[in-house]
Design goal:
alpha+beta; five-stranded antiparallel β-sheet; 23 helices
């Protein structure tokens, strides 16, 4: 091979190796080029689409007009259930304008420092702020970061458009740029500070200053300015009228002051003084928000309900309130003017309220709610006397948590147990001292009068409000799980309250009259619970339906169980021993009524929840800060209920509660719960026979006879330490022997502790094994002299030698030897 050929061969080999070496690189390079190409194309296409969308959004943006820049609201009108106007809600009343020159420089600087620190440098939108918001949005675990400038927030407030979309944001940018070209920075800041929502229905810094600090905005200190500037970020979170809100407000105030220091708005000395200044907020119950001073309690609740439902549609709290007070709505409520007028008259009458509690310097309070059986709230009043300013609405505010006492028993114990067929109205519970917290502790629970009746039916337990009966049913028959489940059904969630005091209405978290009225509605609505409703519809200015409201319903009890509960609670108001006899009746007893009283520990709270076929009314009476109710006030809740409901039912025709199918009646003994016998009718306390109601299938059979009443002979000459006659013995003269009716407990009562208070019916109990201790053998005739005509016998009832002999022989076998006749 010549040299040229060899060299060519080597070159070819080297080139071949080089091609093989570069092939993977070329593939990667080609792929990268394709990727770049498509990426560029995608970017161009996407950019074109976005540019087109942006251009389209910009073109469809409506310019702000002079009308937009005018701060005004439209009157909202509120109507009763008959369509008649109740009142007008005017948004202008809760917005107070203030000139820019009257706003402290510290407040202007505080807003700029925390809301938009580049406000004086950007053209209306802040590109750096927008970029930061986008990056923060995609950063894991990052907190929210607002991208809106003060100018953009003015646009949002002027247009009322809070839609979360790219279109809205692009149009907002365009309007912000335009606004900056037409107004100065100071004019924009002035608009902002008069528009912003500051919580408590305040719009603008002037209304906020008067509400939170009870002073004109021009009088605010640096510390107060920083506090006020912090509220608008999240009014509900930084509201200083709540304990947590006040804590949050102070924390945010310090953040704002630090920003003002870092940005050069204040000096270190000013910062230190502001940090050390104690903020003195106005009292929440003395707020000067004019919007509520002329609103009835009922309208306050309507506004809250409409606001809640607007927020459920996506409105912010600020926009919801602005819509209610400024957008010319028509709100149709469930208020019945006749019912509300009756309630107003009673609650404004001073005779129902003691002037002042001398021990605590408090005036008594009360609240009431009336609902119809379909879930519509017809009247509501939240405090005693004339409503002034914006007091706490004790009838319906969730903050109101009062202990319900025994009014809780029908919904937490008896209704559920009847519905589950665990008890009947005739079920017997022995009302005796119990130690349900442990026998090493004191008796618990005790009854309100610290006495015990003994054998007690469920009906009588409800009628007389017996705590022992309620506690035993809750713990031993129903169980806490079912009790809490049924409370959930009436929208009273108490999952963590699995303790015995719940059976007596001693709750960790209390209730308000609206909750209690709603919880009793199922008894008169065939077992159906209706979520309480205060309005039926809301129309916008054009007459379009903005909101429509119907009570949500769910089944709590079957119809038969609900009716048995009604009948038992009728005993509370119309039978001797009932805790609401007299005042619990209407139209002199012609209008059927039922209900339950409630009293809490130390007489802090008094309740009555009562109802007719027309309405359910719940009343609470007490003091805002726990104080014992005097004896003169003990019937106030019941008296208020009666006098309001008497007016409400004045021209209503008496109608009966509708009895459903599946109800049977049976003559039973009220001390055994079983079918009555002749002995039951002759109980020494009076006839124990009652024609009781039962859900079909739960009544006792004809063969299931009373075994509590027994008959026995006693000697009228001998008694025990309690004065009760002892059983007649063999030596008792015939004229000393009487036949009497006794009770015999299924489970004998045995005291568990010395000095324990025995049940009242112990004196009617058969004295088993306790015989006459007066008449002895010397008073008995000799058996050898006794025959049918012997002295000591009569023709009507002669002595029987055989019976006497058998008895004495048997006695011989049981007595100790010393007492036997032959002394064996």
């Amino acid at each position: 091979m010549n040299s040229k050929t060899g060299t060519a061969s080597k070159r070819t080999q080297k080139s071949s190796n080089k091609k093989r070496t570069n092939k993977p690189f070329r593939v990667i390079l080609s792929s990268f080029r394709v990727f770049i190409f498509f990426a560029v194309m995608l970017t161009v296409i996407t950019g074109g689409i976005l540019s087109g969308m942006t251009l389209a959004y910009v073109k469809t943006t409506e310019d702000l007009t002079a009308e937009h820049l005018m701060l005004k609201g439209f009157t909202t009108r509120v109507y009763d259930c008959n369509g008649n106007e109740i009142m007008a809600l005017q948004g202008d009343k809760n917005r107070e304008m203030v000139d820019f020159k009257d706003i402290p420089q510290d407040l202007k600087d505080a807003f700029v420092a925390i809301e938009d620190k580049r406000f004086y440098n950007h053209p209306g939108i802040d590109f750096k702020r927008i970029t930061g918001a986008v990056i923060n949005f995609f950063k894991p675990g990052a907190s929210s970061y607002g991208g809106s400038t003060i100018t953009q927030q003015v646009i949002k407030n002027l247009t009322g458009n809070e839609e979360r979309s790219v279109k809205r944001k692009v149009q907002e940018w365009r309007l912000a740029l335009n606004l900056e070209r037409n107004l100065s920075k100071d004019q924009i800041l002035e608009l902002y500070m008069n528009l912003i929502y500051m919580g408590q229905n305040c719009y603008g810094v002037q209304a906020a200053a008067q509400t939170y600090f009870n002073k004109d905005v021009s009088e605010l200190s640096l510390a107060e300015c920083a506090s006020l500037a912090g509220i608008t970020n999240w009014p509900g979170r930084y509201d200083p009228f709540t304990e947590k809100g006040k804590e949050n407000n102070i924390k945010r105030q310090r953040v704002i002051l630090k920003e003002m220091l870092d940005q050069g708005y204040i000096t270190q000395t000013e910062y230190n003084n502001a940090i050390n200044e104690e903020l003195k907020f106005a009292e929440s119950n003395k707020r000067t928000s004019e919007y509520v001073s002329n609103q009835p309690y009922f309208i306050d609740q309507v506004v809250k309900d409409v606001k809640r439902d607007l927020m459920a549609l996506g409105y912010s709290e600020e926009l919801a309130i602005r819509t209610i007070y400024n957008n010319g709505l028509e709100i149709y409520t469930t208020m019945d003017p006749k019912v509300q007028k009756a309630m107003d008259e009673i609650f404004k009458d001073e005779k129902y309220f003691t002037k002042i509690n001398k021990k605590t310097s408090q005036t008594p309070q009360a609240a009431m709610v009336i609902m119809d059986p379909n879930g519509y709230v017809r009247a509501l009043y939240g405090g005693s006397g004339e409503k002034i300013g914006a007091p706490l609405n004790r009838a319906s505010d969730p903050q109101v948590q009062r202990q319900p006492g025994s009014t809780f028993k029908p919904i937490a114990i008896y209704g559920p147990a009847i519905n589950e067929r665990r008890i009947t109205a005739a079920t017997i519970i022995d009302d005796i001292p119990v130690y349900l917290l442990g026998e090493d502790k004191s008796a618990y629970p005790t009854n309100y009068d610290h006495t015990y009746a003994g054998l007690t039916s469920i009906r009588n337990g409800i009628k007389r409000s017996v705590n022992v009966v309620a506690a035993k049913v809750w713990q031993d028959i129903l169980g806490p799980d079912l009790s809490l489940e049924y409370l959930d059904r009436v929208n009273i969630n108490r999952d963590n309250e699995r303790y015995l005091s719940l059976a007596m209405g001693g709750l960790y978290k209390g209730v308000n009259p609206l909750q209690m009225a709603a919880a009793y509605v199922p008894f008169v609505s065939k077992g159906i619970y209706y979520e309480p409703v205060t309005y039926t519809k809301v129309l916008d200015m054009q007459g379009n339906v903005l909101l429509e409201k119907k009570p949500k319903s769910s089944i709590v009890y079957d119809e038969a169980a609900a009716y048995v509960m009604i009948d038992m609670m009728r005993s509370v108001v119309r039978e001797s021993g009932g805790t609401a006899v007299g005042l619990g009746q209407l139209q002199n007893g012609k209008m059927p009524t039922a209900g339950k009283t409630g009293t809490t520990s130390d007489n802090y709270d008094k309740w009555f929840v009562g109802f007719s076929p027309y309405y359910v009314g719940a009343v609470w009476y007490g003091y805002d800060h726990n104080a014992s109710i005097s004896s003169a006030e003990s019937n106030r809740a019941l008296q208020i209920w009666h006098d309001v409901m008497e007016k409400v039912h004045e021209n209503l025709e008496p109608v009966q509660f509708t009895e459903p199918d599946g109800i049977v009646r049976k003559s039973i003994c009220i001390y055994s719960g079983k079918t009555a016998t002749d002995l039951c009718a002759n109980d020494p306390r009076g006839s124990a026979v009652r024609n009781e109601l039962f859900i079909k299938g739960t009544e006792p059979s004809d063969e299931d006879l009373c075994d509590v009443h027994v008959k026995a002979q006693v000697c009228k000459d001998s008694t025990d330490a309690n004065g009760n006659h002892l059983l007649a013995g063999e030596y008792c003269p015939r004229d000393s022997v009487q036949e009497k009716i006794f009770i015999k407990r299924p489970v004998p009562y045995v005291p568990k502790k010395p000095g324990e208070k025995a049940p009242a019916d112990i004196k009617y109990e058969l004295p088993e094994g306790e015989y006459c201790n007066i008449h002895g053998p010397s008073q008995a005739p000799d058996l050898d002299d006794i025959d049918n005509n012997a002295p000591g016998g009569t023709d009507e009832m002669p002595y029987d030698r055989t019976l006497w002999t058998d008895f004495l022989e048997e006695l011989d076998q049981t007595l100790p030897r010393v007492f036997r006749r032959d002394n064996r």
